[in-house]
Specification:
Shape of chain A: globular
CATH superfamily of the largest domain in chain A: Formyl transferase, N-terminal domain
Low-confidence stretches of chain A: none
Largest sheet of chain A: 7 strands, mixed
Radius of gyration of chain A: 21 Å
Helix content of chain A: 25-40%
Strand content of chain A: 25-35%
CATH class of the largest domain in chain A: Alpha Beta
Number of strands of chain A: 13
CATH architecture of the largest domain in chain A: 3-Layer(aba) Sandwich
Oligomer: homotetramer
Number of domains of chain A: 2
CATH topology of the largest domain in chain A: Rossmann fold
Largest interface: A-B, 31 and 31 residues
């Protein structure tokens, strides 16, 4: 297993910056026999906000797992007015995947899940088309197809949401899902829906970005993975990458090169989310290394 | 000298695509004892346009240098309705540099010129501020300062244009020149004014792109060198490159990283232009390797 | 389909450089009503060798498909002492995949084949372990397992070779195959066995390159795809790429980042081979765009 | 100014890892009214070593600047068996530059120094040739030329060392200095001599790496900046970067592309050193962001 996952806890937090915060948090962990294995902090000196990710061993930690939130919340978080969450890496999150017709991102994700590269559970795949049912079946993951049209959209989303709740889904990956997700679902999963957009945002938002890139004559194309907000293609960016193109690349070649970018960028973003390395503030992400 | 420059000729051309064009051009050169040292061609299959760059030795070429344009124009170019130009690499072009207050691009260019890395002449530097006069003096290049304000803009441009003509300037490099160049100058130097814009165009055109990049929370910044057209930051892109940033990068750090991108991208674009590797069609460039 | 494949021919060739070669080849095609759709040439001015890849339409070509080799060979190739091959893109090549225990490259390849991204047939997968049998089965590709030990190596290779011949295999991809391929097989498939090595060759050849990279403290890791020759990790390089690492990356993280590099670099190399864009000369590749 | 420099202190340290170290250090700073502006820590879990860089404001710090080393050393560092150093960013270090004949790195450095991009003093340039004297003169920096031959090498180094001492030089930059620095100088400036090697180390150490890269047919070239140790090209790597090449790149073109890499990679490494972001352990660097 790449990182130590068993019997550790992670706290992700942010609060107004103040002298002595790191000292107080690390003292709390030390006093309770918590050995820190990773600690990263960041201060946004412009906004005066303090951010931190700390992971420590629970083996000799005095506070039992189920009471940490209460103790930390009462003794530390309240005092500093923190927004914070606690995670236990040995409790894998549950992820839903939404797809349409392109298989490259789905294959990339499922190959990682199936080979044990990621510590996650995938109880279901949701699609508006049947094209990728065969891919889901290869990996024995339940595939739910909801053909969407103008008249049934609200109804379908109701059903999808029910399915997500029923399976205790923690976060959603849009693996080239070609529908706009409704505000209802977005608001139920704030900063927990990860999309891949096939351009170097904010360049070329919306439909057909590769065609626009070709038309504009750019020398580099990109892909952007971001948390979904109610404003299209404008959510907090988690990860981006680029690939060089030239005048010899037709639109078809650009699309082919782009697919490799999309799947790698999306998978990197999902892994960062899985490892609890991302924090969102002011529509931007802090991504701890 | 990196490439063979002495006693060779380069033709850059494009025309409607037609079967047999390469055969006819290469046969013309071969029949006249012209040994081809570089040949690159490209067909835009969407627009059905043929592009070519060919460089050949003049040592045994039957047609004397000053008559090549006439012979090629009459026997080949007219027949295929070509747009074309001929260049002799041993006749270095004359470049003007426009600057304002930032020195990094100017230093990068002058260091290359001074060390003999580029085959070009720089008869003058033009600026709207006096800040970089000392840099020009270090390299003994005449520095002309024209402070611009709203009332004297047209007048100043008249003087600049006269200066460019007087010095037989072939092309202009805007090395972080912080003024908008007038349509008059642009139309006099079509596809011969090279600008560096400090963003990954078409993202963040206009003023303060690094601040916009910071606000949007992108994970990669870029720089774009393009030929100047009358539409701001929308001309044909010659070269782009990018650099990774993270939440730890303040705007000041982004600007510092960006400067390294800007100078390298601009210098690459200038070299491509100097080597006659660029062709413009439909507001996009063909850049031969 | 990304590139025009139906009813075209590709010639890949090299020969001693001589004035007029391009003219003669393109004249041959033009005279026989062959419309060129792609042409790339390269002259190695140091070795004085001419290289070319040309693709043309067969629709109106006067010479029938089965006679082109005879006509071109007799009238052109012999005269210029060419090494050359002709390919018809609508006749997909047959590829064998060799694997051991890592699934990432295999999944990446099979997902591309299955989704129709590549124009290739995969009649079989060969392995020295049974671990990836389930992956082959997902895609319904026959999986042949030959456990290798010191005493049966020669015997096993005999059987593998028989299998390759029986299935008319044109080229082999070693998708993280952890055995050294015998000289016998290499000599039967010259420049037709593609390997992926998990380092930036020539740095870190041989075993455990990621561990060596970690020990040396490099800031960038790489992956290299090359044609296999009888000298280990020393064959002609087709494609390389790199990824940034830092002191925060443990060996496990380096291996994880490396896997993404490996699969993308290998797949790019396989595609270049499939599209007949690679030529080998003096243990180096010419890779036409 | 990019980072806050006035009236702050930086401590760089490493020691055997132990529970509670971060708490103790940050408590020490907090108790003495030191507001932390940057804190980065890293644990090498394999070697069980703790590394840290912390920068804090001195404005209200109870301990006066000249006594911090004594207080911190006595109360904290001794207890944890730390190797550590303290720096005050408003006291710029003094840098010597060694050059030979290539000007690109020297220009890049001097342009940054002259424009105020770096907070450093450059009291002298040392060379074994007179070629770059004119560059030094442009920037009014004393240039000392010591032609080296087999018989006078030891003598020359004695003089160079005397010069370095006389000018209180803190660290040395070898900006394409084509001589091997003696063990004597290396031992006097441990991890304080920064070299640029024109390859992607450990590939192609020693002389003529671009020629070797061309011969091997790599698809990517690199440059490596490292601290100089007594083993040639084997010191701790600070920074590396790469650039794509192809079969169309002659050795001359590779050298030209490489020069751009060299100067940028060297300048990035010098800046990291100037900002006290580098720590060396076991011949590897920790480079804090």
């Amino acid at each position: 297993m790449p990182d130590k996952l068993n019997n550790t806890a992670i706290i992700l937090m942010h609060c107004p910056d103040k002298q002595g915060i790191v000292a107080k948090i690390t003292e709390f962990l030390d006093n309770n026999n918590g050995n820190i294995i990773y600690l990263e902090q960041h201060v946004d000196h412009q906004e005066k906000i303090f951010f931190m990710r700390v992971q420590w061993e629970l083996d000799k930690f005095l506070i039992p797992r189920e009471k940490i939130a209460d103790f930390f919340g009462t003794q530390i978080a309240a005092k500093y007015n923190m927004s914070w969450r606690i995670y236990f890496p040995d409790e894998p999150p549950r992820m839903a995947i939404f797809v349409s017709k392109f298989s490259h991102c789905l294959y990339d994700i499922l190959a990682r899940v199936h080979s044990g590269e990621w510590n996650v559970e995938v109880p279901l795949i949701i699609s508006n088309h049947n094209d990728l049912k065969n891919v889901a079946e290869k990996f024995s993951i339940p595939f739910h197809c909801f053909p969407v049209n103008n008249s049934n959209k609200a109804d379908v989303e109701e059903k999808e949401l029910a399915l997500l709740k029923k399976h205790n889904i923690n976060f959603i990956v849009l693996a080239r899902y070609m529908q706009i997700v409704s505000d209802k679902i977005i608001n139920d999963y704030p900063n927990r829906i990860i999309n891949i957009h096939h351009s170097f945002l904010p360049a070329f938002p919306g439909a057909k970005p590769y065609h626009s890139a070709y038309e504009r004559g750019v020398k580099i194309i990109g892909a952007t993975s971001h948390y979904v907000t109610t404003e299209l293609d404008a959510g907090p960016i988690i990860e981006q990458d680029v690939s060089r193109i030239s005048h010899t690349d037709s639109i078809e070649k650009i699309i082919r090169k782009g697919k490799d970018l999309e799947k790698i960028v999306l998978s990197r973003a999902v892994l960062l989310h899985l490892q609890r390395r991302t924090l969102v503030y002011n529509n931007r992400t802090i991504v701890f290394g």
